[in-house]
Write a structure and sequence with these properties.
Blueprint: H1 2-65, E1 70-77, E2 81-87, E3 94-103, E4 106-121, E5 129-138, E6 149-154
Parallel strand pairs: 4-6
Antiparallel strand pairs: 1-5, 2-3, 3-4, 5-6
Length: 156
């Protein structure tokens, strides 16, 4: 009878030790997952900033050359981008390139200023990947024919 009691006690002690180990390890795993999620969001924001900067710099060059200047450039759209606006948040004529990056804390707006009037429609390029973008100087902007602008659209 004494031998069965010893086996039961050692099994209970092992179970208790493993439970304490698991109780300590579980919060560490949760914190690690949160940190990885934050790192992915930061990486998407940095890649979005790089893509917006590329579009803005090419648009500045095309705008300074004037009509009929045209350039095709490529951008890499990272995961987490839910929308891309050119000009303003309604894709009208403006001076911004705006990437909307979704995260657990909500949407983050990555903006880049363009010194020339820009407009365009890049809403179809929100899935992750590399896209070719046609950037051209226009004497009358498609979104507002009374204004000249640099127009951006994806090549499909």
């Amino acid at each position: 009878m004494q031998q069965k009691r010893t086996k039961g006690q050692s099994s209970f002690e092992l179970l208790l030790t493993l439970s304490f180990g698991l109780a300590i390890l579980l919060p560490v795993v949760v914190i690690a997952f949160i940190q990885v999620s934050n790192a992915n969001t930061s990486l998407s924001s940095a890649e979005s900033q790089q893509a917006a900067s590329n579009l803005a710099s090419v648009a500045s060059v095309v705008g300074s050359e004037g009509v009929p200047a045209k350039v095709v450039t490529s951008i890499n759209v990272p995961p987490g981008v839910s929308n891309i606006y050119v000009g303003n948040t309604t894709n009208g004529v403006g001076n911004l390139v705006i990437f909307v990056v979704e995260s657990a804390a909500g949407p983050s707006y990555i903006t880049e200023y363009v010194p020339v009037a820009v407009s365009g429609n890049l809403q179809g390029v929100t899935t992750p990947g590399t896209y070719l973008i046609n950037i051209s100087a226009q004497s009358s902007c498609p979104s507002n024919t009374a204004v000249s602008c640099v127009y951006m659209k994806a090549i499909t």
